[in-house]
Each structure stands twice: as structure tokens, then as C-alpha cells.
Amino acid sequence: MNSAKALLVTALLLLLQGDIAAQPAQSGDTTVISVDSTNLRFSPSSVTVTEGDTVRFFWSGQALPHNAVEENGVFDTGEPARAVDFSFTFERGMNGTYAFVCEPHESVGMVGQIVVEPAAEQEPEPEPEVPADSEDTPFLPMSWTAVTLALAFALRRLQGNG
Question: Can you tell me the distance from the alpha carbon of 129 to that of 100, in angstroms, rounded to the nearest whole number?
């Protein structure tokens, strides 16, 4: 009887199986910039990223409050704080060099730079070729498999082998 239950569960799972589509690839990496409070510096003070990447300004438990403000207002972590968790993503078309400062400590050289390189051109993925005689309905073949398995099980029981 256990094999009958297993066969029935398998047949139901085959009927319920859907079309599994590929998930889009995650784009971009994340680079973290923190604070070296001993030397009043960003760490690292200069980074190179690619369009589509994210820069995360992250620090906590600092004795002095800090912020990171880009000189042209492209990004701003807000008011100086002892704990900051701020992310900024450089979209396509934003390649270039971005200078930023910690406003309270700019005079002592707490500055940084982000160099954003252009993203590589992506070639469009070719459309998969579908043979002219195929149907784009995976449910039908799966349902036939389930029906075939159910019939095989029923015939086996009728013959007394189940």
C-alpha cells in the first residue's frame, strides 16, 4: 500500500509541476567604505567600481559623528552620526570620479574618492529556437506522464501484483 501512496504522490507532483523560468542575474557588486576613527580617514579612502555597483557607507559605535557627502550632491549619507548605514548604486551612464568628504572632519583630510568605470556592453541573449512542431505547454506532456503512471499502477493492481 505504501508503494501505491508513493506512486500517487509522484503522479500528483508531476501534474502540479510548472514551467520553471530562469531568474534574472543579480547585477552589481557592493563595496563597503567604513571609518578609520583613529586616523580620521575613510577606509578605504579610494575605491574603483563599475556602473551598476553599489557603494555602502557603514560604521557604528564611533566616538565622533561622521558623514559622507559627494561634492556635487550626487549622494549624501545625511547628518553626521556615530552609526551610518547608507548605500548608493551607480547606474549606467554614471561613470566618472566622485569626490566626497566627511563634513565635520574635512579640514583634517577626511576625504574620499569613488572611480566609476563604464559597464561592459551586454549583448542581448538570443531567443531560444523553438521547433515549429513543438508546443509551448509543458503541462500537457507532464499530464500524459501522470496518466500513464496511474494506468500502469491500476493495471498492476488488477493483475494482482500490487
Answer: 49
